[in-house]
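The instructor's notes for this session suggest beginning with a concrete chain rather than abstract definitions. Hand out the sequence below and ask the class to guess, before any prediction is shown, which regions might be ordered.
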Amino acid sequence: MLKDLAGKRAIVTGGATGIGLAIARQFQAAGMRVAIADLDEAGAVKAAASLGPQHMGVKIDVRDRASVERAFADVIAAFGGYDILAANAGVSSMKLVVDLEESDWDFNFDVNAKGIFFTNQAAVKHFLAEKRQGVIVNTASLAGKWGAPWLAHYSASKFAVVGFTQALAREMAPHGIRVNCVCPGFVKTGMQSREVEWEAQLRSMSPQAVIDDYVNQTPLGRLEEPDDVAKTVLFLASDLAGFITGEALNVTGGVRMD
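After discussion, reveal the predicted structure:
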């Protein structure tokens, strides 16, 4: 257990499933009180209940500033404040650029980029008002460092997450507020399952062949698990990472090494 995290309070967006739920579980195991915020309110409440009675689930639409402010205010009312934000909510879709619609672009940017802006802004306002040296960890992507075919709009939104993280980290450093992001690779989640089906159609190959290709691209030789990401988020949230800010940390099994 990371003793410095015991008793701290965290918000995890997109926490009802996948990477977000894995982050929430790691936080709970470290002795933290966790608010799971998700568009799926029932899923958020169920996930929080699975962690224990001291945790909470709350509905959030990260695309909507008012929804973010309401959700975070609910957490403050219940917990008395919060110390850590894991801004993990994200979406993807897959198309060739020539086939992209404006709605595809807007959907990815509204959740992946604007959602980071709204949630991070709300968090730093709270930290500054409380004179708290809070921590933010954003979920970016391998595709935020490498322009991925069939994912140009998603890649662009995740590049935005990396750039925003770096800029906010520089602004908040004088206040002792750390801001980092993680860049996962081929993570075994429901989102990946959908992407495998889309990519198989786009590449005229079987879904299993797509998965095999992911594994072949990964030097450590397996698909990434949500816990691989969650443990890294836990580290960045802890005092062990006390001199790390503005980083976009690869968690890819070696797919990306710079």
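Then share the key points. The CA atoms of residues 88 and 139 lie 5 Å apart. Residues 102-129 form the longest helix (28 residues).
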